Amino acid sequence: MNIKHNTVTSTLLLCLLCANSSKGMDSHKRQNRNKLVEAIELALQEIQIQQQPPQRLNLEAGVHQDNRKKGQDRYEIREAGKYYIGAVYDGHGPADDVVNYVRKNLIEYIITYTRNGASILDSIKNTFTQTECEINDCGLEGGTTALIAILDKDTMKLHVANLGDCRAVLCRNKNPFELSSDHKPNKPDEQKRIEEKGGYIEYDGVHRINGLAVSRSFGDLDLKEENLGCIISEPEIVEESLQPEDQFLILASDGIWDVIDNQEAVTMVQRAFKLKRTPLEAAAELVLKAKMNCSMDDLTVLIVRFNN
Fold this sequence. Notes:
Low-confidence stretches: 1-9, 47-54
Order of helices and strands: HHEEEHHEEEEEHEEEHEEHHHE
Radius of gyration: 26 Å
Number of domains: 2
CATH superfamily of the largest domain: PPM-type phosphatase domain
CATH architecture of the largest domain: 4-Layer Sandwich
Largest sheet: 7 strands, antiparallel
Shape: globular
Distance between the termini: 26 Å
Mean pLDDT: 87
Number of helices: 9
Helix content: 40-55%
């Protein structure tokens, strides 16, 4: 690539030198010469831009958690080579076996798949399938949602994989940009899938399938056996390229989003950063706000700020 660029650059510079010679030119030829010089200079500028090293992100993350309601939220932040990974898990059910197993293994499996040459997309899909199979084989009790964001710091591509009702919200150009979809039983496409499998959605103040308030999860083996295919462990995966106007990413459990909408969350974090507060402090403010708004669930907020 460098040899090709150097050859093209030398050729353009020679053309520029020749074009700058105006000896013997009439006004019409001189006008055409000026256009040619301008085009060559623009081409040289483009080559200089392409030869510059890619811009790298300076990331800053913070997480705050209030786990006093049920004690079943978990989170994780990891760096593995070019990947920066954040995850939030919201466990449920009579035991913490599944959420603890997922917290221990999910990111580790993804990293292993990528190191063995799999694409990040295939790594996520294979990891979710493998994890659910192992939970089944071990007969682990309980269940959990899972939300994981993986940023490739070289390509600036962000992959968000979601299973359940934690949520990822990006602040883009000062506005909320949702990167995940809550898997509630009454979500139109989820409801259609459930009903096609013969499932029935109940409502007791919250929409439920087999007593569960989410339509996708890890574990929940007994509930999944009642209506096969109604509650699934297949994640929805979103790929998004980061833009210069992207400021930060919020990952949070549903205890936050039950009482704070996307716009309010983004506005609060923006205000915190204007006051020179850290992502940790901004996350703590969101948790406090959710408690003031009478959230009845565990609360976890993970914020990643992009300092370009």
